[in-house]
Amino acid sequence: MTGATGDRPTSPMELDEEKARELEEKFDSEIRFRPLAPLAGTLVGGLLIVLSVFHYYTAGFGLLPEMEHRGIHLSFVLGLVFLVFPFTRKGYDQPTQSTLLRPLGIGLVDWALAIGAVVAVAHVPLIPLDDLAFRVGNPNRWDVILGLVLIVVLLEATRRSVGWPLPIIALIFMGYALWGPSMPGILVHPGASVPQLVDHLYLTTQGIYGIALGVVATYVFHFVLFGVFATRIGLGQLFLDCAAWVAGRYAGGPAKVSIFGSALFGMISGSSVANTVTVGSLTIPAMIRLGYKRHFAAAVESTASTGGQITPPIMGAAAFLMIEFLGLPYTTIILAAIVPAFMHFFGVLVQVHFEAKRGGLRGLRPDEMPDLKAAFRRDWPTVIPLIALIAILMAGYTPYLAAFWGITLCVAVGLLNPRKRMSVGEVLVGLRDGAKYALAVGAAAATVGIIVGVVTLTGVGFKLSFIVTSTAADMAGWIGTVVPADWFGPKTLTLLFTLVMTGIVCILMGCGIPTTANYIIMATIAAPALGILGVEPIVAHFFVFYYGVLADITPPVALAAYAAAGMAGADPFKTGNTAFRLGLGKALVPFVFVFSPSLLLVAKGFNWPDFIVAFLGCVIGITCLGAALSGWMLARTAVWERALLLIAAVLLVAPELYSSLLGLALIVPVLMRQWSVYRAAPVPA
């Protein structure tokens, strides 16, 4: 076939970038802007491009001093949020005509908030460092006034761009800081006055201008921009063609293409919703045509897409957050992420395979498969930026320098590649869209700074950790009275219940909060609880991060699942429940690497025997779990078989040799019965 680009052969699964952008804006509220008048649209587009150029230039030629760099980033972000996100949903339907009360079609209140945000943000970076050092702990009147202005406009900007949950959490934490003497029990503290709280949140790098904003301004933004350009030059299409060639021919082909394609595309996307709608625009209709139920097709795509945020080398920018929090080299972080990411996709693949076998669903026909040789002949230059980026990271250079060269090479490939050439106008659109993706996460990161600031000001993180571990110990003591002591010791049970409670909190905190913001909150509040029980920091951080990602497919606020449901025309809640079921492998694996850190490859005490036992136990256990939940193995499973498989799955993922052997023993009768039924009535391939 020949596409619109002349002699460029098209793939049977051709990615329509314009359609993908429209779907993202429709289903991802974080990048859905209100309609703008032409002049306002030009102004906003120009400011977005300037923001991208600023980050691109500083990544390659040197960052500004910390407060200046973060201040410039935040002033652009907050100012633009008020210009592009309306006060309520009704604002998306308001006319764009310019009037006296709505200059350029934007209300006077929004203009005032935008200007107020820029002035309040810029105040701190403009203070000379010597003067700032004197005023920390002794703010003047203008510091307090402008600090209060920034807190108010920041909460409102976050509400508009991300939703209510995060601002409400920030307000609760600020209330805790102010009314400390009135808190019950262990939560009581001396309390802080309004000037003291504003001083800590506004004038120091432990609050709004803290690590959360810093990581977004120096790492996240750059890799989002790289992902936009990598997709524009055709790397995403090449990934999809590779996925279709690898997995498309097997039973339920499009669903397996969805899994492999989302894993590859997620490496350059970093957003569950963006990954869902981009890859899903091709795979969801193909799955439905093949015979998958609409809610299942949507669930497969959303579950696979959330895996993009845990897939090395970029991990939705979480890898770079972990570098800052843990002080570990980049190579250590991505090595630790390899096996857990594999387990997630393997768990989804197993259930999809069993579902396809149960429904007798075919794979893609040869005429529906891409020509891989033609795809590489066409798009091989698009791999150059990704290889260069990874090589620079592995060589030990800063992530933002790697992103600088990755973006530079993307633009060079786009301008020079005759098969898919970008115009200068398309480069500008890429710069605009890259900044567009960063607005919501930038506002959210600054609001997370409020939460982190209260934690450092009051010490509440350690108090919450003590409450969690004490509650877990009480539960362990009660269970210890009914379970033989030689099965599970008090320490093991305490850790188990702490993990369960931490996982639940991570999922609840992740409802409606971007993954990056959720991870920072949980790393500040929840990870210390695991540290008290002796869990290694890298293990604790991976645990809270993985459970935070699960929120994207966990009802009632499963953003990725609901986006996929909208594309498939499926019931959102049913899709969310199915997506959570498909992602249960991801829910089990974090428990494994806490009790057997060898699964992370780089944790302390790594040894090959422990790794092999844990790895094989996970693979077999996840397979058993998939068979039990799907109702199919080699043939349809009976109720007693599903029960045995569920028990065996839990025993197999438990990182102890004796529990794994017991789990293997339980699946023997299931395998015997399944094999006899399969031999008697072979299932067509």
TrEMBL record:
Superkingdom in the source lineage: Bacteria
Keyword Transmembrane helix: yes
Pfam family, one: DctM
Keywords: Cell inner membrane, Cell membrane, Membrane, Transmembrane, Transmembrane helix, Transport
InterPro entries: DctM, TRAP_DctM-Dct_fused
Transmembrane segments: 36-58, 70-88, 100-122, 142-159, 166-188, 208-230, 330-354, 383-416, 437-462, 493-513, 520-547, 553-570, 582-606, 612-632, 644-668
NCBIfam families the UniProt entry points to: TRAP_fused
UniProt protein name: TRAP transporter permease
